[in-house]
Amino acid sequence: MPKNYCFFYLFFIFSLLSFSQNQEKRKVYTTHKIENPPRIDGILNESLWNQAETAGDFVMVEPGDGDPIPLSHETNVKLLYDNEALYVAAILKEENPERVITQFTQRDNLDQAEFFLMDINTYDDGENQTRFIVTAAGTQADARMTGDNEDYSYNVVWESAVSQDENGWYVEMKIPYSALRFPEKDIQTWGIQFYREIKHLNEGYVWNYIDKSVGQISQYTGLLKGIRDIDPPVRLSLYPYISMASERYNGNDDFNFNAGMDLKYGINDSFTLDMTLVPDFGQTAYDEVELNLGPFEQVFGENRAFFTEGTELFNKGDLFYSRRVGSTPIGYNEAQRELLENEKIIDNPEKTDLINALKISGRTDRGLGVGFFNAITDKEEAIFRDTVTGNTRRRITEPVANYNILVLDQRFNKNSSISLVNTNVTRNGSFRDGNVTAFLFDIFNKQNSFNFKGQAKMSNVNLPGQNKTGFASMFSVERTKGNFRYEVGHEFANETYDINDMGISFINNYNNFSWGGSYRIFEPKGAYNNYQIRIYGQHLRRYRPDISVNTGMGGSFFAMTRKRFAFGGALEINSEFRDFFEPRAENTYVLYKPFGGGRFFVSSDYRKRFAYDVRVYYEDYYKSAQNSFNLDIEPRFRFNDKFSMVYDFEYEYENDRPSYVDQSRNMIIFGTRDQKSIENSISGSYNFNTRQGLNLSFRHFWSTAIFAEGEFSRLAEEGSLDPIEYSKEQNNPDANFNIWNLDLSYRWQFAPGSEAVLLYRNAIFNQDKLSQLGFEESLDNLFAQPARHNLSLRVVYYIDYNRVKNLFRS
């Protein structure tokens, strides 16, 4: 594939250039060391704060650009340090204290509360930083920042408190060094930024100016100086847990008791080991399962904290789909199909059990990020019983499997990086193994006005007696400065590219081109705080054979008024579409007619007690009866500062869609399908304070698919469909899908880093062929099914080695 080699040459040329960060002169704050730390109570009455330098003169970042903060909302920040921690005090003046929004929420949930934020970049590399947030109600939030991406699954233990009087509100924070990674140097120089969100004014202010029209916000930190002669502490934290669960289903009762532990250990000043021993994922949120009649598996979000926290390095190159670890055994479906005469399956596990997992990650003071991930899953077997003889046999559906990721990510010049990623899955015995290696680059020029991104990925799948090697690449150029911006891109994959042992990729064998342009504003204009107009297009091709798949273009618009009312939409037109995946056969496609569509949304001001979101989408296929429609209405109401609720209603239909039915007598059979879905969901929370709260999550999803009688066809040459006689009585493809999930939990953070969660879970599921039933009749059938009731308690306790060590010394 010689045409892809040019990407490497382009990278080589750009990598020889000299890059530098381009920003205004950075503010500098110099702190000093103290002997006796302040009490973290939100009341700044200790004399030591009077001796600290003041970081003031905040400037607007939203919605304006650089306007000084008014005296009525003057904001000042002070920092001190000792051998254990960094201490922060923030004075946030407010001429109308009663207008400060103090909504009670749980950790990492800001909702509509006003807040103070501090970013710390201990390596001052322009990208990787740790974010600490305290709301006016006292809620804590913390995140790992990679560029503009926030990872709120990252959690460390630190202290904070707030207070309020007639002049405004105040914050005190204690950030222990055990919560940070920093180089082992005598003199520390860190990047730092402060931000204040004044929600009731719809304004945000920063300490160090941010030019929103150039680069990323993480490149605009100020400098923190004065910290010296501190030793990084031993970063060892233990999270032992116990969990108990009682379940009743279909007249059977089950009780489980588990105990295990998560561990965090600072290997050195840069790298941290995270390990989970005897993991327990019994209280993870339910998956939003839907009726899936398409050719691809349904993708679910990750609900297990270990696989979401601190994974920014492992997500490089989009090669890690964490749900692969502990997923359905690779031989699950084969076991369902290989029943012998007089046999039945008495056990066929749908998930593999995770034995243990660990990850090591960090970044050196020279900007080299290193990440290593390993997980081991247990063997799973299907058990068959002969109903005549009573004999049983076993079949391994998934052997012991080892999952690995290695990432090397070199940052340079505070705005660019090159990365090498390898993923590997090895299964014991004669099973499928997978290995993927990727080379990535993400480079800005020295003015931060252009960005060059590229990827080259090589996959290798080892099957019994067969190896399959594939290749994929991506290259894009984007203008990243000013009001007018544009980009062009190219993506390629050959027909053997396959990353699905540890990643997820639905399609391969493509050669796609894309382009786009936009105009945006960075400070208010007229009635708008911001708006953006964008046009875009794409041309999709099959790599082998080289034929066109689709050509499309469109335009979109987004705007937000000064009163925080947002609206926008898009219009798109597309040529005919050759779908190579709906037929479920190689080198075969079905041809869909040209189509166009439009979407529109409105979103009201969330600061008000009542707010709403409405989204509408419609798609129509020209010269065809096929069309689809989607309506999503999501009202929300905040009863008071402790109680809020969101209701979401979604209705969707798809009419006269030619869809795969079956393969019979060397024919691929299609039918004309109507599909309708209704989803109702409710989420609500009542927070007694910032450490105790009740949370409700409910979802009911109903979907039917009806294939029209007498409208079946066989797939012919060039994607056309020829009518045939086909009886639904032989193989009825209709479906009626109904699922109900309810979670009610009480969460109590009884000590820093420690919590207890009591969870009640209720679930019902039904799927049949009765697609002609209406909503109420189908719901009656759902409630006739046995319900699964689960009550569980999980208690996690945080143990800091340094505190235990000091306790024993005293």
What would you note in describing this structure?
This is Carbohydrate binding family 9 domain-containing protein. Pfam families: CBM9_1, DUF5916. Residues 40-186 form the Carbohydrate-binding domain. InterPro entries: Carb-bd_dom_fam9, DUF5916. Residues 232-808 form the DUF5916 domain. With 810 residues, the protein is mainly beta. The protein has a domain at 31-225: Immunoglobulin-like. It is 4% helix and 53% strand. The strands form five sheets. The protein has a 24-stranded antiparallel barrel. Strand 11 and strand 12 (203-206) form a beta hairpin. The longest helix has 11 residues, at 5-15. The radius of gyration is 29 Å and the shape is globular. It starts with a helix and ends with a helix. The model is unreliable at 1-23 (pLDDT under 50).
Low-confidence stretches: 1-23
Structural class: mainly beta
Biggest β-sheet description: 24 strands, antiparallel, barrel
Shape: globular
Q: Measured on Cα atoms, how large is the radius of gyration?
A: 29 Å
**CATH class annotation of the domain at 31-225:** Mainly Beta
The helix content is under 10%
Mean pLDDT: 91
CATH architectural name of the domain at 31-225 = Sandwich
Distance between the termini: 68 Å
**Count, helices:** 4
**What percent strand?**
over 45%
Count of extended strands: 44
CATH topology of the domain at 31-225: Immunoglobulin-like
InterPro entries: Carb-bd_dom_fam9, DUF5916
Domain DUF5916: 232-808
Domain Carbohydrate-binding: 40-186
Organism: Gramella jeungdoensis
